[in-house]
Every structure is written in C-alpha cells, then in structure tokens.
Design a protein that fits this description.
single chain, 82% helix, 40 residues, 2 helices
Length: 40
Amino acid sequence: MEDKQIIQMFWDREEAAIGELDKKYNKFCFKIYGEFRLSL
C-alpha cells in the first residue's frame, strides 16, 4: 500500500491504518533501532 493511502486512512480515522503502517515499516524501524543501539 502506498504511503498516501495509509495517510488518508489515518485522516479518515480507520483503525486498519495502524496495521498497514506496521506491515510496511515495522522491519525498517527495528533495523534502524538495532543499528542505533550498536553505535552507542
């Protein structure tokens, strides 16, 4: 799903937007978090 669609879901207050955001960015966020922790 495209970012614009996810953002629109948030504006429309659709609960499914959280799941879509998680599906798209969960792995990416954890990767950045892991790299950040290793750099400390």
